[in-house]
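Risk register update: the risk of archive-format incompatibility is retired. Evidence:
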Amino acid sequence: MSDDSIDDSGGWRESLSGIRDVFRSGADNASAYLKARTELVKIEAEEAAAAGKSIGFLCGTGSALLVVGYSFLVLVAVFYFTESLSNIVNVTLGALGVVHSIVGAIVLNKGRRRQRETRWFAESLEQWKRDQEWIEKTLKRSNREKPSS
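Archived output:
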């Protein structure tokens, strides 16, 4: 090929510029999509952190109450067998132990139930599934519309 056959009219530069614009537009769309998805995940992460703190507080409080209740019951057993405290003190400590144990079990159970009911990142997962279904439908449609060679 000689230099005489090269067309310097700039046509190839215009088509290259068009291709560049198409890629730039696609990259901008992908960037906007990723930015929106990142914002959604950020919002859901904040919600998950708040739910996690609440669940952690309930489980920690319930566990602490159970430990305190158990400790009271152990003290009652020790003092009962050693007969070192009066009967009213043993009954009071026993009642405190039972109450703390019951309240601790209720609070701990509430925390566990809330953990099971919490849908962690549910909106992001549902949106992800919808996006995947849309992509699959689009690919199937584009494959059907392609002419067979």
